[in-house]
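Can anyone check this?
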Amino acid sequence: MTWGTLVLLVLVLGGVAWVWYRVNNHKSGAASCCGCGQCVRTGECVMVKGKKPAKKQQDPS
């Protein structure tokens, strides 16, 4: 592999990493959507549903 090819490879990989960071830097939890549509129907994502702490239920009395 020549130096020019190595430099080009590093530049391409760096560009891909930069674009990936810019696309996903505002998200917390799952980095991608599975496309099930559950978040539209119920308002919560199935990818992060189990990671949320459960709310304590109040006693009715």
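Reply from J.R.: I decoded it. The longest helix spans residues 3-24.
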